[in-house]
Amino acid sequence: MSSLKELTLIWCNSLKKLPESIGELKSLVKLDLGETQIEELPYNISCMSCLKELILTSCRLLKKLSESIGDLKSLVKLDLRKTQMEELPDNISKMGSLKELILTLCNSLKKLPESIGDLRSLVKLELSETQIEELPDSISRMSFLKELTLKSCNSLKKLPESIGDLKSLVKLDLTETKVEEIPDSISKMNSLKELILIFCDSFKKLPESIGDLKSLVKLDLTKTQIEELPDNISRMSSLEVLILKRCISLKKLPIGVGLLEKLEVLDAEDCTKLVKLPRSMGRMRRLHSINLTWTNISKFPDDFLTLSNLVNLEINHLRSLQSLPIDMSPVKTLKKLMICQCKKLKYILMLPSSLVELCCEKCVSLVRLPDLSKLKNLTTLNLRYCKKLEEIPGLEGTESLKELSAQGCYNLTRTPRKIQGTLLPNNRELSYSYSLTANDGIYNNGFILCLVLEFFFTIDYNLKVKEGHILRTNIEICACIHQKDKKMKCFHTLRIKDLEYTTDRDVIYIHHFKGFDWFGIPLQEKDVIEILYIRTYRFKLKFWEILFKNREPDQQKPNSSSVADFFNWSYVGDDGGAVTLNYWPNQQGRRRSTISHFFSRVGFDPVSEGLYY
Questions:
Q1: Would you place residue 541 in the very low, low, confident or very high pLDDT band (cuts 50, 70, 90)?
Q2: Which domain holds residue 538?
């Protein structure tokens, strides 16, 4: 086996010891002992003169390496992840070719030897989730080190001043450490591109010299205790991503932020004390994503609308925001606008025609939307629980709209004309779904939605609901509207009030639409409504149907290839057998879908029963 180049013994759970003769594998390039029960490596492992990779991942009984390990002159990668390593031997410094040293999750490791600085070829050093308390000053001698990862080193409180001498360092990750400050010498890291300080709860201030990091591309300060950013942050001429999420002590952004001309992402989500944006934001020509969710911003700077590359704007939960800039149409690149739960927002006046997604969910004071007919690219419109919104102007002009979510928008589904009452329950279980073709030229009186409901829950003593109590319920309706070569899925909520709780009778509800207008969506000739589901609360839906208000005129049988041209009606008959009727509602001689026929089918006498409008 003298020519063997790779030996993999991973998952050999019974392997506790390697033979001394393993050192005779002079040609071995990779040795993988991951997940074995190895307690120590044989001394003559140093004889493997060609070994480049030594993998000891999850060797949980391995506590130390022999001094001879330093003689592996060709070793490029040493992976000690998830071992019980307590210390590294001093002569590890003799590994002149070592480029990767991985010590992640070595929970017993508290200290690095001073000699580690002599690993001049080291490119990557991973110390995440160790008990390291400090880095040796000699680390500054690692002139080729590019990545230093110290995630979750909970005992690490400071960095040595000499860390600034890591001139080749590209990424420094201090996530979840106890570091309180960064030494001024960091300004000498000419190659640093990523500085990560996520969840450094003790970190309060960036050094003034931070502005000298000319190569820095990403600065992540998520959930630090930082109170302000230095003005000279404007000198970070390469900065593209600035993340300030959950910096709850941050009150303002300096003017210098507005001078970051290469910045592409600004994320200040959950900066609850942030009340003001810098005046100079118009110079941020490359900025394409802004997240100001859960800040206390009440207005935008005058030059905000000159952000020529803005694609994504998230301003959810702005408690003080009452209106957007009067005219947002100049932001011609904006595709996604999220304005959820801005409870004081009343008006949105003008929007850019480039918009693809608009979300105004739970803007409970919103009463007016702009004309949407110019939003030809809009595919998603979310207006859930905008309770005061009464109309969606220009909806018929949105050529690309695929989904409209308007659950809880009770004013959109309110009708001045409705019928509701009760009737003796019919023993038959009726249920079906179908597609309906609306032809405005023929049915100029529009259509109606008829529902038969039954209370199905027992008396809830927690709610103290008893016979005769007046209740209300919501009916969730999901429909798909087919228009020419496109289709749109829409979600609406019907609120039915003043229902007397009873177990003896069913409830009938008849909703009159405004002509051929599906909850504010105008329907044109040959448009099709496909009901996907109707869901109720506190009730069982026994029966539903969409009906025309007037009689059907003569019409030729439609093309049978169109699913929208006929009803599919199925129910269980009195004899228990399943019955299915396929018929065209518009064809003379077929069963007519009229309101009087509906009453007769459900056993309801509109004269003798109590109806009200």
A1: confident
A2: 418-601
